[in-house]
Write a structure and sequence with these properties.
The protein is α+β, with helices and mostly antiparallel strands and 742 residues long. The protein has 19 helices and 28 strands. The strands form 7 sheets. Strands 3-7-1-14-11-12-13 form a 7-stranded mixed β-sheet, sandwiched between helices. Strands 9-17-16-15-10 form a 5-stranded mixed β-sheet. The longest helix is centred in the last third of the chain and has 28 residues, at 505-532.
Length: 742
């Protein structure tokens, strides 16, 4: 189906969830009320590293209105570990904020009072805060069953790194640091759990319901079929709600209370639940005098906090993504995740990428200065071509990177900008191996009234996935979106989906929905062909009607032909996405992120503002163009945050000093660039429906290196530590003036 024939796909239709959300009818987890539901509260450790000597819950249990008090002593019949973390602290705490006990009460006030009555006796242990402390010789062990504080290690190697540097004319080596940052989804984590005769029902703000179901089943030693996970709307996710967080704790609390229990985090609680990895990155890169890349070596350390969470996967991605989108014959990268006494780090939009792309793309500009080359030309010279391998074992590049960069150069008038002396402009390029696991299943259910229900377990968290999937179904079935209903995930009802993350939903679930709609369409065509007594090839589907010459049959009439009038029968189309989508090769697709900025630098105060931001998003095909632009620009705003001001700050005693939105600053409308423009590249060469490739993460990748590249171009100062707070910038400018006056 060519782009000219598409009637729904490729158009910025009204969002199918828009009216519900703007009228307040949309239900988030905090809005749900389950009959008999109790209010839960978690007691969290005030120490970053300590042994638990004793827990006395007697005063809390005696409080009127208390239904249950939970500690590790109640979990003896369970498998109390998931994703490397305990359901609740047993014997030892490893970060400030770790759950130590939980209560279920008739109302929130009683729960709060009960928490204050739980007496925990601790023996403090030496604290390890930060990567350097964790790696130091003789550092206290976060986990005593290990010989050091290394959580995981990933190594990538190709060619001969020593020979590559020996053949290089210019070698640059630098060290960069990236801050610990928080997602700030507007809705903090929340869970409701309820045991009943059928098993267990959990309502959760989870991005990956089937993975949460699997973890709970393992912890409680019950079949997954007895665990039902229900997802309504999420108030943002960005990876913070990937995988299992504290669902098992709430399930255990509900089991002890013998009643449904809800626990809702505060923002401060969620900041201690999950975050992005802080990083230290050493990069060494070699070039020939003509700019040809010869070698890159990288050593990456990621602060994963007290427990694994998704740290090992982030480490694997970082070891790959530090290579950039370039053809490098000799590579050696070693990435390590490191345990510390901080809250656990996990998935965050483009896992492992912003940290290392900041380093790698900063270094491309450093090398360009040494080589006397235009930074854009240096990148163009070394970009991978379609089919070329970035990392051994991964699928070749599937996008036209050079064409994308040329579009950026043209859109931002790069050559005109750099022709001016010391203009504060910078750019950067990146690719990420996206799509995660390509396993998704969908159903299209045509009911007797002509409404089509799309059953798909992708989680709607503001990114617009319900609208996009409805557009795909509407396009295939030639019906308006008001005839399509799509709800949230319910593992008892909706078919399997591996996850909502890694920019995979439009591609992976989109393919499954398209296949389900086509299956349903074929069933309808068969009914019409039998009715019209013609071959199926002569029946067309137009505007929700089956057509053959002058003969017409709408969906309701087709059902009546199949099942009889008034029978209420229905048809179900099925579709799936499997690893065969990409011939069992990963990644599912390569996501492309390219961007340019122009800065406004106040040398008196050190404040840096982004005056102009141009971003290029290679989306293959924009199913919903306005939604694509919103995703790209939203991602860029997150990039502005970790570039200019966001940073979680721990003191030497393991206390988070800014655990709220008064002290932890996120971008506001005042930080939106004066000129903010996104270029959508539509080559229709992705593996998804109509040639789509996922997007939503690429927009944040180029921001940090573009900003530091622009700053260096204007001031001559190369800043290698983020964020670029006014104080950090002001001190750097002051040092430059001091050196100039010496």
């Amino acid at each position: 189906m060519s782009s000219q024939q598409l009637k729904v796909v490729g158009h910025s239709v009204p969002r199918v969830d828009g009216i519900e959300k703007v009228t307040g009818k949309a239900k988030f987890l905090g809005d749900l009320m389950i009959p008999g539901m109790l209010h839960g509260k978690i007691l969290r450790s005030v120490y970053p590293h300590a042994r638990i000597l004793a827990i006395d819950t007697s005063r809390a249990e005696a409080l009127p209105g208390i239904a249950a008090v939970l500690t590790a002593a109640d979990l003896g019949d369970l498998v109390p570990i998931y994703n490397g973390r305990p359901v609740i602290a047993a014997n030892k705490v490893r970060y400030v904020g770790e759950p130590v006990a939980a209560v279920a009460a008739a109302d929130p006030e009683t729960a709060e009072e009960a928490i204050s009555l739980v007496d925990v006796q601790y023996e403090e242990l030496p604290t390890v805060i930060g990567i350097e402390a964790a790696r130091a010789a003789g550092a206290p062990l976060i986990h005593e069953d290990r010989s050091d504080n290394i959580c995981s290690h990933e190594r990538v190697e190709r060619g001969n790194i020593k020979a590559g540097f020996a053949q290089s004319d210019v070698v640059v080596e630098d060290r960069f640091t990236f801050p610990m940052v928080y997602h700030y989804a507007m809705e903090p984590h929340a869970v409701i759990a309820h045991w009943n005769d059928e098993g267990l029902t959990v309502w959760s703000s989870a991005q990956h319901p089937f993975q949460v179901r699997g973890d709970i089943a393992k912890v409680f030693r019950i079949p997954p079929s007895r665990v039902r996970i229900v997802i309504s709307y999420l108030g943002g996710g960005y990876g913070s709600k990937s995988y299992t967080k504290f669902e098992p704790l709430v399930v255990a609390l509900a089991r002890k209370a013998n009643a449904p229990v809800r626990v809702c985090n505060s923002v401060s609680d969620s900041m201690l639940t999950v975050r992005r990895h802080a990083a230290e990155v050493r990069v060494k890169t070699g070039f020939k005098q003509d700019g040809t890349l010869m070698a890159r070596e990288a050593e990456i350390y990621l602060d994963t906090g007290a427990y694994d969470d998704n740290g090992p996967q982030v480490t694997i991605r970082a070891a790959t993504r530090v290579l950039g989108p370039y053809r490098i014959p000799n590579i050696l990268t070693n990435a390590y995740s490191v345990y510390t006494n901080a809250g656990s780090a996990g998935s965050f939009r483009a896992i492992g990428a912003p940290q290392v792309i900041f380093a790698g793309e900063s270094q491309i500009d450093i090398a360009a200065v040494r080589l006397g080359m235009d930074p854009a030309e240096l990148r163009l010279k070394n970009l991978l071509k379609k089919g070329e391998e970035l990392r051994p074992g991964l699928k070749g590049i599937d996008a036209n990177l050079a064409a994308g960069l040329k579009k950026l150069i043209k859109a931002c008038q790069w050559k005109k900008s750099v022709a001016k002396t010391a203009t504060p402009v910078g750019l950067a390029c990146a690719v990420t191996n996206a799509g995660a696991t390509p396993v998704s299943v969908a159903m299209a259910r045509l009911q007797s009234d002509g409404i089509v229900n799309i059953l798909a377990a992708s989680t709607e968290m503001g990114q617009g996935v319900r609208t996009v999937l409805a557009q795909i179904a509407g396009e295939e079935l030639t019906i308006p979106l008001d005839q399509i209903v799509i709800g949230g995930a319910d593992t008892k009802v909706t078919p399997y989906d591996s996850s909502t993350g890694s920019s995979r939903s439009t591609t992976c679930m989109g393919n499954a929905v398209q296949a389900a709609a086509r299956d349903l369409k074929q069933q309808l065509i068969k009914i019409a062909a039998e009715t019209f007594r013609v071959p199926q090839s002569q029946v067309k589907l137009q505007d929700g009607t089956l057509v053959c010459g002058e003969a017409r049959l709408n969906f309701k009439e087709a059902l009546e032909r199949r099942f009889g009038k008034g029978s209420g029968g229905e048809l179900i189309g099925r579709g799936d996405t499997t690893p065969s989508l990409t011939d069992n090769q990963l990644p599912v697709f390569w996501e492309v992120g390219m961007g340019m900025v122009e800065l406004d630098i106040d040398e008196e105060t050190g404040q840096v503002r982004i005056k102009r931001l141009i971003s290029v998003a290679d989306v293959g095909k924009a199913i919903h163009p306005e939604g694509c632009i919103g995703q790209e620009e939203g991602a860029a705003m997150m990039g502005i945050g970790h570039t200019l001001f966001e940073q979680m700050i721990y003191d030497a005693n393991g206390q988070l000093l800014n655990p709220n939105l008064v002290d932890y600053r996120v971008p506001s409308f005042n930080d939106v660039p004066e000129e903010f423009h996104t270029v959508l590249v539509e080559n229709e060469d992705g593996p998804g429906p109509y040639g789509v490739r996922g997007m939503g993460e690429g927009g944040l990748l180029s921001v940090a290196p573009s900003v530091t590249n622009a700053f260096a171009r204007f001031t001559g100062i190369r800043l290698k530590d983020l964020p670029l707070t006014p104080e950090r910038v002001w001190r750097a400018l002051k040092q430059r003036k001091s050196r100039a006056s010496d």
